[in-house]
Amino acid sequence: MSVNLPAVAVIGAGSMGGAILQGLRRPEVVVEGGIRATNRTEEKAAPLRAPGVLSLATEADAQAQATALRGARIVLLGVKPVGVPGLLEEIAPLLEPDAVVVSIAAGVRIATIEARVSNVVLRAMPNTPSLVGRGVTGVAAGPRASREDTALVRALFETVGSVVELPEERIDALSTISGSGPAYVFFLIERLTETAQHLGFDGATARLLVEETFRGASELLAASDVDPAELRRRVTSPHGTTERAIAVLEDADLTRVFDAATAAALVRAHELANPTA
């Protein structure tokens, strides 16, 4: 099914902005008016150039932001949180009146952006699997946004995965699950790989065993019509080896550990949102 979007400007096309840019270049996505991207350096701008993509370096072209924003209906802010206020001061006069501004900067509130621009503003929290089209993005609409504006931004992020719409006050909680979640998975893979090596497997074999097991289990879950608890039960034969291993994991109270980990992440998210508090 084809997706039609108006002209998009990605201001700060770093790793996440670049991932979304790649999603926009999928064959089934049509971006009327083209994709524009800006970065500070030519080194970062050059690799993004492709048919339908205008990629500019601000250090080489003083008019780069104006060129990228001219006619852009969706403006994605991909700069680091600390750079958002200064960027908004720069681009506010350059935004088209009907441009929808979308920030993916962690901790920067919609109200902070709305105080600097007169446009519709939404906030989004994508995660790193967006790089391979398997992302999860939380989208929160500001008070100026219509249902049509939100649908437009949803369509943008669906080019790189799934989208969850939620109130802004839930964005930080979402970030502790889907935002930080890939790191939790990678951490578990690291630890299980070390365990495989402790059992005598060489590094390459240990990685193969663990990474392919995680990949296979995830794909089995995606293809299944039952929940993960049932899939776990099917692997866990009564009085077998897996049952004994699961008992050890249950004794470790992983629910408590994950509750504590996400609580710590949530506290830090609040600190980022209120740096002077």
TrEMBL record:
It comes from Protaetiibacter larvae. The gene is proC. Coiled coil: none annotated. Catalyzes the reduction of 1-pyrroline-5-carboxylate (PCA) to L-proline. Residues 168-272 form the Pyrroline-5-carboxylate reductase dimerisation domain. It is found in: Cytoplasm. InterPro entries: 6-PGluconate_DH-like_C_sf, NAD(P)-bd_dom_sf, P5C_Rdtase_cat_N, P5CR_dimer, Pyrroline-COOH_reductase. GO terms for cellular component: cytoplasm. SUPFAM superfamilies: 6-phosphogluconate dehydrogenase C-terminal domain-like, NAD(P)-binding Rossmann-fold domains. Gene3D superfamilies: NAD(P)-binding Rossmann-like Domain, ProC C-terminal domain-like. This is Pyrroline-5-carboxylate reductase.
